[in-house]
Write a structure and sequence with these properties.
Number of helices: 8
Strand content: 25-35%
CATH architecture of the largest domain: 2-Layer Sandwich
Structural class: alpha+beta
Number of strands: 20
Distance between the termini: 37 Å
Bound molecules: flavin-adenine dinucleotide
Order of helices and strands: EHEEHEEHEHEEHEEEEHEEEEEHEEEH
Shape: globular
Number of domains: 2
CATH superfamily of the largest domain: D-Amino Acid Oxidase, subunit A, domain 2
Largest sheet: 9 strands, mixed
Helix content: 25-40%
Radius of gyration: 21 Å
Length: about 375
């Protein structure tokens, strides 16, 4: 049986970051992942993720995103790969909608650089947009694009360099804990450690089944279109990341052009619930028609040929805030799950928080919003 100080179960966005921070603190780490490194079966594939600072979901996320930016930049410098591109961001919607009001609340509470601009001004600054006059946008400079595959690879490589033992294509079948030790059984062996960090993404409902967490896994599709006009206007130097509240509490979002010239767009939430084993990976023509309709209405130049689609999974909590806490029955086990479709940008700081909780039992970072007792 192999032993370690800490076992990390699941090496996706959060687990790779946890393994990185733990290994750099000099503890013996074993990381266990059911698939190959940087796979496309979970929640962290698809070339791009939005990062933004005027966080509409809650002002308490802002200090975390500020720390996440520091960590991404440090990691980027260390690994010498492109992880983050700053493009600025637009949160577009009705003036009294949750998106605009939430972004303004965070910007004001934390004195963040931002402007509130009209529909006409959106189009003047970013010509591909067509927004009805009742729409406004919070424009912020501190937003951009993360490359999730490169980010996860950088965390995995950094963890390995710092001495972590990372084992891939080795699903965890079972874990047990008593007050002294955690035992983990995989398809290939048995492991024990003083501590366990569980970062199982959309598999969390199974891996943590005894906790009966209020998690719902939701299918979400990404679409890549070739612009049908004015392709240069979508370059990352000219076009921002954006989220658009096109109806009350209904959102689509998108990115500037990737290196292959395509622009990625997606709905935020689909209402189609699943599990990792029942996820529907094919995309129906009616779904393409629906997203194309939004582009035709709000960003018509982006609505050219559909080049690719990919299905991915959100793991939602009822309040759409994360779960980051110690296991209620086993304090030597730390959990991070329920990232509700907006967790990736935080993974660099979540890794640090998980290392704090696993090794010290507390963290200086503000995570009160993410504690488990809120569901009891
Ligand atoms: C379409 C889409 C768009 C998104 N857009 C954004 C965005 O723009 N910005 C943003 O910040 N966030 C975004 N998100 C959310 C973000 O990507 C996720 O919150 C984040 O990637 C979740 O990371 P995770 O580590 O929890 O899950 P994952 O990265 O899926 O990692 C979980 C890992 O655990 C492994 N695992 C599970 N069970 C076992 C087991 N029994 N044994 C071994 N290994 C196991 C899995 O194989 C997997 O590798 C988006 C998500 C999707 C789906």
């Amino acid at each position: 049986m192999a032993t370690a100080d800490v076992i990390v179960l699941g090496l996706g966005a959060m687990g790779s970051a946890a393994a990185y921070h733990l290994a750099r603190r000099g503890v013996r780490i074993i990381g266990l992942e059911q698939y190959t490194p940087v796979h496309d079966r979970g929640s962290s594939h698809g070339a791009s993720r939005i990062i933004r600072e005027a966080y509409f979901e809650h002002p308490d996320y802002v200090p975390l995103i500020q720390r996440a930016y520091e960590q991404w930049r440090a990691l980027q410098e260390e690994c010498d790969a492109s992880l983050l591109i700053m493009t600025g961001g637009l949160m577009i919607g009705p003036r009294d909608g949750v998106l605009v009001q939430g972004a303004l609340a965070s910007a004001r509470a934390h004195h963040l650089a931002h402007e509130l601009i009209s529909a006409e001004e959106i189009q003047r600054r970013f010509p591909p947009f067509r927004m009805p006059p009742e729409m406004v946008a919070v424009q912020e400079p501190n937003a951009g694009v993360l490359h999730p595959e490169a980010c996860i690879r950088a965390h995995l490589d950094g963890a390995t360099t710092a001495g972590a033992v990372l084992r891939f294509e080795e699903p965890v079948l079972q874990w047990t804990a008593d007050e002294h030790v955690v035992n983990v059984v995989t398809t290939q062996g048995r492991y024990s450690a003083a501590r366990l960090v569980i970062t199982a993404g959309p598999w969390a409902p199974q891996v943590l089944d005894a906790l009966n967490l209020p998690l719902q896994v939701e299918r979400n599709v990404m679409y890549w279109f070739a612009p049908r006009a004015d392709a240069a206007a979508f370059a990352p130097s000219r076009f921002p990341i954006y989220i658009c509240e096109y109806r009350t509490d209904a959102f689509f979002y998108g990115f500037p052009a990737q290196s292959d010239g395509t622009v990625k767009v997606a709905h935020h939430h689909s209402g189609e619930f699943c599990s990792p084993s029942t996820l529907r990976r094919d995309v129906a023509p009616a779904e393409v028609t629906r997203i194309r309709g939004l582009l035709e209405a709000h960003l018509p130049a982006a609505s050219g040929e559909l080049r690719a689609t990919a299905a991915c999974m959100y793991t939602n909590t009822p309040d759409r805030h994360f779960i980051i806490d110690r296991h209620p029955q086993h304090p030597q086990i730390t959990l991070a799950c329920g990232f509700s479709g907006h967790g990736f940008k935080f993974s660099s700081v979540v890794g640090e928080v998980l290392a704090d909780l696993a090794l010290d039992g507390w963290t200086r970072h503000p995570i009160a919003l993410f504690r488990l007792p809120r569901f009891r």
